[in-house]
From TrEMBL:
Region (Disordered), start-end ranges: 1-36
AAA domain sequence ranges: 41-216
Residue ranges with Basic and acidic residues bias: 27-36
Protein name per its UniProtKB record: ParA family protein
PANTHER family the record matches: COBYRINIC ACID AC-DIAMIDE SYNTHASE (PTHR13696:SF99), P-LOOP CONTAINING NUCLEOSIDE TRIPHOSPHATE HYDROLASE (PTHR13696)
Matches recorded under InterPro entries: AAA_dom (IPR025669), DNA_Partitioning_ATPase (IPR050678), P-loop_NTPase (IPR027417)
Protein source organism: Propioniciclava soli
Length: 294
């Protein structure tokens, strides 16, 4: 009696991504938006420094531009890291986001700088911004100041990405109040994981008291090294705790990212065929899939 080969065929194995979940079926990014623009504002925030927040802001912005979006990056960190990462010297600025926050005599569009990447603009910052935290305390509706600054710019862009300072102070509260969505870059390291609960608590308070439309778009794992048990365990714990809030895309460690900072350009143009560039393109697709208004 002959055996039926079909009985012994293995079931197809679903490919799992680095987060341990099957990759979603992401639609191809559509072309440029038609009709009038109104930017979706996304705060890139984590109170812990050194988690890849600025790197993610710059490279996600550049990847979104490749899909036909017009993107504005708002450097809202007194260290001016996003400005430096796009080739701008913060010490030579005639005007910055600080001047827009504390005065009304400037047009925000006049402070915006061309990043050198077509479709990607920058609202720069420098160390002057550190004084804003103190000076805003006495302002009326102090938490709404950044929202006022960005309001006239929203019609010129599809996405506005705010690179927040590594703190939970008044500047970050301003960024969250001005935003529609939050993306949390999270280094795949234990101490970074501990701070997420504090951050989500702050986001919940802002949602409850200042910005009821604010939502967490997702958590993205950064600086991931799949060769180490520690990175794998941290990522596994993040997925266990936050489930589908965690993006499927994970940004792995690579020497290319520090090189792009020195070059003053995104990885999508500095090393367009590198795995890092491909990862941010995939993250951009996930962002567009989760945020259809972008």
């Amino acid at each position: 009696m002959s055996e039926n080969p079909a009985l012994f065929e293995a079931e197809p194995v679903e490919e799992l991504g680095p987060t341990g979940r099957p990759w979603p079926d992401l639609p191809e990014p559509r072309g440029p938006k038609e009709g009038p623009r109104r930017a979706v504002v996304i705060a890139m925030t984590n109170q812990k420094g050194g988690v890849g927040k600025t790197t993610t802001t710059i490279n996600l912005g550049a990847a979104l531009v490749e899909t036909g979006r017009r993107v504005l990056i708002v450097d809202f960190d007194p260290q001016g890291s996003a400005s430096v990462g796009l080739g701008v010297n913060p010490h030579t600025l005639d005007a910055s986001i600080y001047n827009l926050l504390l005065g009304r005599d400037l047009n925000p569009a006049d402070v915006v700088i061309d990043s050198g990447v077509e479709g990607l603009d920058l609202l720069p910052a420098n160390i002057d911004l550190s004084a804003a935290e103190v000076q805003l305390v006495s302002e009326v509706a102090r938490e709404q100041t950044l929202r006022r600054v960005l309001k006239p710019l929203r019609s010129a862009y599809d996405v506005i990405l705010i690179d927040c300072a590594p703190s939970l102070g008044l500047l970050t509260v301003n960024a969250l109040t001005a935003s529609d969505q939050v993306v949390i870059p999270l280094e795949c390291e234990f101490f970074a994981l501990r701070g997420v609960a504090l951050l989500t608590d702050t986001i919940a308070k802002v949602t409850d008291r200042l910005n009821p439309d604010l939502e967490i778009l997702g958590i993205v794992g950064t600086m991931y090294d799949g060769r180490t048990l520690h990175s794998r365990e941290v990522l596994e714990r993040v997925v266990e705790a936050f489930g589908d809030t965690v993006f499927h895309t994970v940004i792995k460690r690579t020497v290319k990212f520090p090189e792009t900072t020195v070059a003053g350009e995104p990885i999508t143009s500095y090393a367009p065929s590198s795995p890092g560039a491909d990862a941010y393109r995939m993250l951009a697709r996930e962002v567009l899939a989760r945020c259809p208004d972008a």
